[in-house]
Amino acid sequence: MSLGYINKGKLEFMKEVNKELLDILKRIDAGVASEEDLRRYSHWCDAQQECRQSNPQDVLDTIQKDRLLETIVGRAFEKKNSVINIRTAIAIAAALLCIVAAGLWFYQWNSTISTNDRIIAKVKIPSVQEGAVLIMDNGDQIELEKQGQGLIGEETNSKISKSNDSSLVYSNAVSAASKSPVFNTLMTARGHQYQLTLADGTKVWLNAASSLRFPVNFTGQKQRRVMLEGEAYFEVAKNAAVPFVVVTEKQEIKVLGTHFNVKSDQNASSSATTLLEGSVMVNNAVKLVPGEQLVSSNSGLSKRKVNVEDVIAWKNGFFNFEGKQIPEIMDELARWYDVEVRYAGAVPKDKVDATISRKKRVDEVLDLLEMTGLAKFAKNGNTITVTQTK
Amino acid sequence: MNQNDQADLDLVERLKSGDTSAFRTIYGKYVDKLFLFGINIIKDEEDCTDVIQDVFVWLWENREELTITNLKSYLFAAVKYKLTRKILASRRREEILHQRPSTIDAVEDDGLALKELQAVIHDFIRTLPPKAREVFVMSRENYLPHQDIAQQLGISENTVRNHLSVSLKKLRVYLSRNFYWTFFLFFFH
Questions:
Q1: Under CATH, which architecture does the B1-127 domain have?
Q2: Is the ipTM value over 0.90, yes or no?
Q3: How is domain A222-308 classified at the architecture level of CATH?
């Protein structure tokens, strides 16, 4: 390109503007644009419209438009449909498996049933009414309250012992590698916590109305994977070669050996991981340092500093209601005392500061909460009705 | 509010409820204007068609989550936003950026256009999967260089770059990966 001397100044100016605009575009594309960047880019786009030439190529004809629409519809609708199909297929497969499994279980449990009887199985997530229950690999359920101390069972190379009223220990009898992992599930009812020592020495405190599914031993496995619903505090035995992974509906927490708390709320719409010691990696993406909490919810991820003592207060026998809102508090009370919560009218939004012993009766806790002046509570049978105080 | 705005609001409502005919109506109503708007900027039929296609596919896939106050402005803003990457990737980048440079300085505010552009970017980020969004938000809100984001999230710089540049379409595939566990937990609980 040859430019006259006179144009040189203008060229320099244009280069500068060009560079500036380029930077703005890069910032917008990278998601770091300021409001001013957006304003300037938007204006530049609009300015291009003024010099519009009436070029016939600048207009799509009907055929082109139809073809483009079909491409769009193909990409948008069909892609979505195929996802739905896969999901539907998985859902149907899972439901069928549930029905078959439930059917088999029902059949085993009551073998006197006539084969002509139709087996109607409800696909429902079971919940524990009382105390804690251990579900063995073959489906047997052991009510732990009813077991004496000492050895209560054996499961593929692992011995299961009850060490006191509310704790269970797994130990490897033989260290032979098993082909596929054998899983047990520990479930707690409302108002009951349980402590568990896994075969690798990892300690787990399972909060009320929660469940943990875990392999009875970890020999020969690449990862120590457990699945959690509800809340648990983990003290993971160090083993740098075999990461320990906690899976919840919203998070996957990978650790090598550390102390942390995981909580999924009741409808599993959010998960919070709090780190006390060491380091953890959540969803293969976010690393936490001690004192940090990562919350995953439908609206995304957020990381914050928290007081860890408050987070694990439950493990030490306290409710920690520091800076919590009434709904969050009521969720926790529902999990601990066997109660349902209803709201008459508006849901109170203000925050509460309180630490209350879990040994108190529910009425006592409600009395204390009423003293905050935020809400009134009426208990009728198993239902607590919350009314906001004006 | 004029009649057209009201008609558009109705279309948006129908779109959100999954009405495919509303989607086709929106396309028919705006594709010409959007195409002309785009081609006046990027001056390339193929690139412009790509942008229009991306905008409409995105509109459908995320219809339930978009915050559209004015459909027309929103669509124009979406075209503007999707154009940035096309321009940056274009071989004719310098040429495009040379067009009418004198008006780049801020002029009188067109509040609506700016507001919708911000809404589009906000919606775009909101509809990203968690991991990509984390990277995106860190980069946007904290103005962190890739290296720092990589360090904070414990991932490689390359991964950060990928997250910031991989197309939305590819990212959405990632989203379905964790789905399995839902059933796993449900089934064994």
A1: Orthogonal Bundle (1.10)
A2: no
A3: Sandwich (2.60)
What are the tens digits of pLDDT across the range A11-53?
565 566 678 888 888 888 776 778 888 888 888 888 888 765 5
Query: Domain limits of chain A?
Result: 7-46, 59-124, 125-219, 222-308, 317-388
Q: A126 to chain B: which residues are within 8 Å by CB?
A: 189
**pLDDT band (50, 70, 90) for residue B12:** very high
What tokens does A39 get?
Answer: 């304003």
Instruction: Judge whether A296 is closer than 8 Å to chain B, CB to CB.
Output: yes
What tens digit of pLDDT does each residue of A272-323 get? 888 888 888 887 778 888 888 888 877 777 888 888 877 888 887 788 777 7
Q: Decide which of B42 and A361 is more confident.
A: B42
CB atoms within 10 A of CB B67: 11
**Domain covering B129-189 in this structure, CATH number:** 1.10.10
The answer regarding whether domain A317-388 maps to CATH 1.10.630.10 reads no
Which of B44, B45, B56 is the mutation pick for testing A, counting most A CBs within 10 A? B56
Please state, as a whole number, how many other Cβ atoms lie within 10 Å of the Cβ of residue A146: 9
φ and ψ at A152, to 5 degrees? -115, -10
The reply to whether A289 touches chain B by the CB within 8 Å rule is: no
Is the Cβ pair A90, B130 closer than 8 Å?
no
- Domain range annotation of chain B: 1-127, 129-189
Answer whether A82 touches B (CB < 8 Å). no
Phi, psi torsion values for A355, nearest 5 degrees: -125, 120
Give residues 96 to 135 of A whose Cβ lies within 8 Å of B: 97-98, 125-126
What span, in angstroms and rounded, lies between the C-alpha atoms of A292 and A286? 11
